[in-house]
């Protein structure tokens, strides 16, 4: 019944009556509905426990009131929750399982579950750390589920069972001491511990729980509606949790990856306002958890999300704006990937600014300033995201910014993080507006960082170039194309282009001829330079010529080189052209990967647009594989349905030949698709291997050069390059996991320089 | 249980829903139109400046996913940009994210509006106003520097 769902979901929202009276009223309504709607109510309550964790204590109180009125219902609810927990764990839904565990533990506070049985469950959780031959991330989860429930229930459990709790805590401590943390550098947003340490999530939580214990489990931030009902609830009979055995580890188990806690603010950042809870306070943990949960619940509805964040209770006791900004950036910068699409965070921050125009923009400006100050130690991937966010944000506010405040960056080398960041921001701002606008918005001193005017460079353009080989053919071609000549005629004109690579007359004309490619591609791109649409039309119209010229691997590489030569001032154009050429199969993904690592692009190697292109290329490859796999699955399903239909029809139709004939076309299709899938998967694996190989080569070169020259390895170029390698691993970790053996045995072997090997080892540690 | 049970409060996705607008020139019945709108990967984008370029639109709308095609809206007479366009994505999910996060934000300092489109057909790239531009620019009374100044009805003959 929708009415029930709506009543239950709405409790706790803004209302004219108090929360307590709403809960009491609702408990009465539900109690009356139990005879007819019990299973419905059970299902809804289990679902809100799992999906609305930010309202945890509201719903545990509700369950407590129901249990006080109807003991059997309480028991059935607990059973249903345990069933749901088991199913979540089996389905690898570990994040939601944590909320269920927390809910169960808060039910102890509501006198629904007996404390000793909760302690027993936690004992079983933490003894997972004694299991042998299981991934560390498995033990991590059980420890996390235990520790993260303690802010809610630590006091009660410790009061009832202090000896047992001490034992569990001590077991936890020894696990935390011996677990490995190789993965941490790969997941930190900043590599520096100043001003705020970037802690591994379990270390941080442990410190918070330690402090809570020292404070005798006094916790004052969490809203606990059940306290108002204490007299009713303590009359209720409690249930014992059944003994809970953690489901065993299987091959299919996928546990959450470890995290590093993002911290950018402390109480010194808002000296006028309420004091921000310290990084090791349990309040900090609870606030951050709840804010993250709100975003998780309302990410599709930006206005609701902003409103819910800003109406988080306690907003005069905590500097809520600072917490919100920190949590939003924590998600935006999260490694490996943000929980939601990046553009959501930009729009969410704009909505927040709209709702709090007098205070939030200032906090955001302060945050931006801090992020800028700490660019030197920020992970390259995070710098990308910062740059993308900032430029998009500015484009919504007329690009207004106090650029002069950042003139310190002009004194650095242009490849250092700060000036590099400003350059990339200005380039992105230009893409969202136009060149002159950017020149106008920055002080004159910043012109060295301004982007180039995105114009086309045509080498055969000027009469002064007429001594260049191919010049006359280029002229000829220009006239022909303007006259809408056919592809055959184009081939005819190109036949006259000599091949600098060959001495004999190769009359076939279609082996790799770099000059032919140069003349054709330069001329065509120049003629189509007016807009993206013009260039795409040109690619489509002359597709046949492109395919022929770029038939060989060298041909593909050279096409890409010429595209770069023509459009090096307009990286956005290069990106869209490369995208089109891959989609129309003029070049393949491996060619793009090789081109990116080629010496011709070395100068631009650290520029953001290069990595935009590479990751877009990998994404296309991945989507292609997924698409064909889906086609295969769908065709297999069609065949299965066909079989089923036949089996359920005439049973005495024994004519095998006719059934085979029916199956024939589908089976053929399946075979073809199977081949297609295998070939796509092989191409995908090859792409990653090429990329890793090129990284290893280019990094080894640098390391050897530094060693023999006696100079420091860590240059800005090196930091960028090694973090780009990390980024490949992190951004595509699920697919790369399939290649672990190959990577281990072929590429990331023990002979490799330890700098490079460390990246691979950190990656392995993520799921170990 | 786990994967299916969703609460309506969490299902809410108002930004990605169909608006009230229906293209009156659509060939087909309302039911067909709605069916197409509900699975479309194409968005109509309105309130652009006449000077907004294809490149700018690529950059902004590329933030929600890979763009398949952009078709600029043109004045039927002058064949110049007249302040709208179509953006087609490869996947519906990317178009939905554009509706959720790019609709109602700024491009070229103007708040742009996106809406589902049943799919581009030749001829739909032209404005339907009498003067050749969009209908809204025929009758508006205000001065908009990015859209040719005053509305056509206000401009001197």
UniProtKB/TrEMBL annotation, chain A:
InterPro entries: ARM-type_fold, CBP80, MIF4G-like_typ-1, MIF4G-like_typ-2, MIF4G-like_typ-3. One of its GO terms (cellular component) is nuclear cap binding complex. Residues 658-667 have a biased composition (Basic and acidic residues). Pfam families: MIF4G, MIF4G_like, MIF4G_like_2. One of its GO terms (molecular function) is RNA cap binding. Keywords: Coiled coil, Cytoplasm, mRNA capping, mRNA processing, mRNA splicing, mRNA transport, Nonsense-mediated mRNA decay, Nucleus, RNA-mediated gene silencing, Translation regulation, Transport. Residues 1-213 form the MIF4G domain. It is found in: Cytoplasm; Nucleus. Residues 639-667 are annotated as: Disordered. SMART domains: MIF4G. One of its GO terms (biological process) is mRNA export from nucleus. Belongs to the NCBP1 family. This is Nuclear cap binding protein subunit 1. It comes from Chelydra serpentina.
From TrEMBL, chain B:
Transmembrane segments: none annotated. Residues 125-157 are annotated as: Disordered. One of its GO terms (cellular component) is nucleus. GO terms for molecular function: RNA cap binding. InterPro entries: NCBP2, NCBP2_RRM, Nucleotide-bd_a/b_plait_sf, RBD_domain_sf, RRM_dom. Signal peptide: none annotated. GO terms for biological process: mRNA cis splicing, via spliceosome; mRNA transport; nuclear-transcribed mRNA catabolic process, nonsense-mediated decay; regulatory ncRNA-mediated gene silencing. It comes from the Eukaryota. Residues 41-119 form the RRM domain. Residues 135-145 have a biased composition (Basic and acidic residues). It is found in: Nucleus. Keywords: mRNA processing, mRNA splicing, mRNA transport, Nonsense-mediated mRNA decay, Nucleus, RNA-binding, RNA-mediated gene silencing, Transport. The keyword Translocase does not apply. Pfam families: RRM_1. Component of the cap-binding complex (CBC), which binds co-transcriptionally to the 5' cap of pre-mRNAs and is involved in various processes such as pre-mRNA splicing, translation regulation, nonsense-mediated mRNA decay, RNA-mediated gene silencing (RNAi) by microRNAs (miRNAs) and mRNA export. The CBC complex is involved in mRNA export from the nucleus, leading to the recruitment of the mRNA export machinery to the 5' end of mRNA and to mRNA export in a 5' to 3' direction through the nuclear pore. Belongs to the RRM NCBP2 family. Component of the nuclear cap-binding complex (CBC), a heterodimer composed of ncbp1/cbp80 and ncbp2/cbp20 that interacts with m7GpppG-capped RNA. This is Nuclear cap-binding protein subunit 2. It comes from Chelydra serpentina (Snapping turtle).
